[in-house]
């Protein structure tokens, strides 16, 4: 899970990206790495990080019958 950015402008970008997802957006909100393209993540260190300027873009839509 990746923590939302601390920068208020970047938080707004993430919030806009997540606006169609039902979730409470708080300072402690984390987003699963599955919501990012693999090339958007930096896995070179012990901690997975989101590359600069990236917002979550992958959202599965559940179909109900």
UniProtKB/TrEMBL annotation:
Keywords of this entry: DNA-binding, Metal-binding, Zinc, Zinc-finger
Pfam families documented for this protein: THAP
Molecular function via GO: DNA binding; zinc ion binding
Residue span(s) of domain THAP-type: 1-59
Gene3D superfamilies: THAP domain
Protein name, UniProt field: THAP-type domain-containing protein
Species: Capitella teleta
